[in-house]
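Help wanted!
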Amino acid sequence: MSFQLFREIQADLARVEKELSNYMDTDHPTLTAASGHLLYAGGKRLRPAFVLLAGRFHNYSFERLLPLAVTMEMIHMATLVHDDVIDESETRRGTPTVRARWGNRVSMHAGDHLFARSLLLIAEMNNPIIARVLAETSVEMCEGEIQQMATAFDVEQNFRDYLYRIKRKTALLLSASCQLGAVAVDAPPYMIRALKWYGYHLGMAFQVTDDILDLEADEAKLGKPIGSDLRQGIMTLPVLEAIAQVQDPKLKTLLAKQEKSEREVQEAIRIIKQTDAIARSHRVAQLYLAKAKAELSRLPNIPARDSMAMIADFIGRRSY
Amino acid sequence: MSFQLFREIQADLARVEKELSNYMDTDHPTLTAASGHLLYAGGKRLRPAFVLLAGRFHNYSFERLLPLAVTMEMIHMATLVHDDVIDESETRRGTPTVRARWGNRVSMHAGDHLFARSLLLIAEMNNPIIARVLAETSVEMCEGEIQQMATAFDVEQNFRDYLYRIKRKTALLLSASCQLGAVAVDAPPYMIRALKWYGYHLGMAFQVTDDILDLEADEAKLGKPIGSDLRQGIMTLPVLEAIAQVQDPKLKTLLAKQEKSEREVQEAIRIIKQTDAIARSHRVAQLYLAKAKAELSRLPNIPARDSMAMIADFIGRRSY
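Answered by r_m:
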């Protein structure tokens, strides 16, 4: 995501980055290395950006927003590093992760530590709404992960199963970032609500787009091999759209297979691409983006609102 | 630990048990099974018991103590299930754990879910002291785990390294259980302080005893093979005492070896038992128990205080 999108909050976002970097510094060299690896591997810092942008709609206070912005990114990082902890059969895939370099134990403890540190920040903020929303979000995010495991390789699941998962995987934390940024600056309820729903719909669109890219992105830009959802048995929207259209049982057989050869993965992608599954998925993403922008129209016309609209447009066009 | 010790709070502890059991019931069958497995595998429920006993010293209110008691046990269970997530090289040891039955991913998500659920309980209690103490405790517990990994197989570490670890592994959560039970019923500061330190010293003694038992318990009673710390390279107090006494470099060589044969483990235990390392470790445990009981003397003479003294005596004598 281009840095330009965040011009509105560029300087403060840099201060968040510095604070995050300080947070990675611990007394434990391995932990510092693992967390640092995770931080410097990049990421769009979309959650901190949303915290700051949401804070613009009322009495902007960087001091009040900073711990929240750091917390949101740390929770996000904790989920990423825990998602790396996978069963032995899957250990040889993908780019070097914390797990690949330091093993499951370090990944798990690094994630636990990030999460525990964010608890400390939450406790220090001493705001019952922030504490409750982040606790609820954490529970739901876990349930999404569990559901993803439970439905892996299940070709009979429906679109609702998919929406249940991506809400928890992506939309809720982005929604909480927007919502709580407004809560932290004591914005009025109507703003909090509009920002919460903007974040939710934007997050749904973001994940749908992510799932499309897993089938058709340029691997070099994406930074990981395409088809990784297929290999893990995660049935994404374009996959479910294709299942609904293709009569030939071969696609289902390929998708349900737990250990696919590289040829089988490519064959499944080829069949999916022969349908209009990807075009349909793009339309779903556009619908969510339209809903996100409709929420923005309820908010005051300030530069932060333009930035949020631009982020929505960017997600509609993103190719990596 | 005999149920008799908790006579004082027996009925309420049974209600905590029921509530814990309700908490294990989720919409996700695998998660419910994994968490239930963990819960019904037993455990002494020492943390909930301490919450309730501590609450006896002031205006006892089961309703205020219940969410805290459940939270403490769930945090404990979360750490247990995460400790099961180990590297591939260690997957074939020990009794059936959640990880052994359902794999690393389920273990990790079950632990995350238990922890997130406990966050929700913490948020609902809406008590900034409870939130802060549990956040700080969680961070320190993670750091203890990380330190345990970092010092594994290191025969040059000192007693302070050991005390650093067991404080975080065991003492802090027991201490927080006692402290926060008193906080939840608005006990006066002197009581909170005495209970906190009782829990801390008792916890240190508990872990020292645990570490002695790993070398000399009856395996059938202990429920796991002895010597498991040695296999994992964890240098416990009796091991460090033996290292300090034995001149023969053979012991260090054995202990530093990452993959020990069963004969090597037994040989190391034999050498350690030839020293007075275990007797010295028992004396350290007794010192901590004396300190724990000294804290009790600051508290009103009520039946809960007798129960806490009996728990200290029991730990001094326990053989499994």
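OP: Thanks! One thing I noticed: The mean pLDDT of chain A is 91.
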